[in-house]
Amino acid sequence: MAQGKRISVDIGSTALQAIKDMGAAAKLARTQAGEGQAAAAARLGVHVQTIARIESGEPGVAIGHVLGLLAQYGITTRLQPSEDGQPES
Question: What is the reported pTM?
Answer without folding.
Answer: 0.83
